[in-house]
């Protein structure tokens, strides 16, 4: 009676108590599990040698041309202009101990670079604290724009070193005067770029803010700041470059510890090789600052993808 009751055609072929059920069904399940999924391999792109050499050869050719011209000048110089090899040997001696200190006027190149960067950071930081809010205010309110635009147009073209005597007179010290010079020269790019960014915010955004009756703080934080951020970072990048240029000239006149003073001191000692080394150090540090700020600006800049 038990073997006559079935629920499906498959069960009608094999009794419930038959061992053939295990021997037939189990291998089918095992076979289903044992079949591996096909592995998809991504084809490797062939190396584009032309693109690689186009990225490598032009910079090498440029540096090679520089060394060639440098060597020709040194060979034809009657004043003992150092050759690239002599300068390289001197650079090894300079960078062997960049942080030595034998008094306030005799310190390694590392301490001089750090002192210059500290002055740049202070002057630039003060300029950012003043310039960025001022740029938002000038771009936001037409009255302030008409009020300050003539002053900015008048003061911005003034040479950086023209502000140094004013700083020496007011602050009675070389270090505050150098920071003041950096401040007054690096504030203009941040003010101008921030104001331009605010003025270029689409009018639709501001109309929506009026419809929603947003407060001025909400407009600043939710609408203006995200839209103006790329312009603001561009102004910051230009300001840092200006500050690094100004500090070298300011330190050459004010003295103390700094890369500009180091250049002037080596000139007084007629050590031209160290002056050339300082030029390369100034260029490398400026390039590093520029590269870092470009990366930051790229991270916060969103471009529209075109189909």
Automatic annotation (TrEMBL):
SUPFAM superfamilies in the cross-refs: MetI-like
Family: Belongs to the binding-protein-dependent transport system permease family.
Keywords: Cell inner membrane, Cell membrane, Ion transport, Membrane, Transmembrane, Transmembrane helix, Transport
Lineage summary: Bacteria, Pseudomonadati, Pseudomonadota, Betaproteobacteria, Burkholderiales
Superkingdom to which the source organism belongs: Bacteria
UniProt-annotated location(s): Cell inner membrane; Cell membrane
Name recorded for this polypeptide: Nitrate ABC transporter, permease protein
Organism: Variovorax guangxiensis
Membrane topology: Multi-pass membrane protein
Domain ABC transmembrane type-1 as annotated: residue spans: 113-293
